[in-house]
Amino acid sequence: MEIKSLVKLTKGRAKICLDSGTDFVLYKKEYENYGIEEGADLSQADYEEICRDILIPRCKKRALHLLEKQDRSEKNLRDKLKEGGYPSDIIDIAIDYINDYGYINDARMAASHIRFYQDSRSRKRIKQDLMGKGIAADVIERVLEEEYTADETELIAKLMDKKHYDKESASYEDKAKMYRFLAGRGFSSEAINRALG
Known about the structure:
Layout: E1 3-8, E2 13-18, E3 23-27, H1 28-33, H2 44-69, H3 74-83, H4 88-100, H5 106-117, H6 123-132, H7 137-147, H8 152-162, H9 172-184, H10 189-196
Antiparallel strand pairs: 1-2, 2-3
Helix pairs in contact: 2-4, 3-4, 5-7, 6-7, 9-10
């Protein structure tokens, strides 16, 4: 395999691009040990050794580290690992490893998100957030049914109260500002207009 390019990154790392279309990131000492430089050839045996001894263990460790901080959907975890410069086949191995231990659970992650945000966001907004995280629509619907207990009329009133909104003395600008705020939280026009009077 020919090394098409070696692009230096921060912290002594470099992105190595092979003619096969595969890209990966190594530290300076690592790529120097394998004689990796632009235009050079990388043997299949060396590439497999790099994958086995460096990339796979590092990708697994990175995935675990990302999950240590917060629950993530599989899609979100894949995206983060891709940003880290790992090839998709290495990411697949790391995700399989994580799944063997049950560390990725989209329903659990969705339930946690719903419990945290249901006091400040509409059902619709939470659904959008979860879809943006790559969680399947059927999982979102099921978990919303189980977890979302907020009364949206009460929630709007609470948010208006928190913003010190007085509908009796509110100017047109105040109403417009509150409308935008509530719309940003995902509440329907109908529910907002009803609340604003």
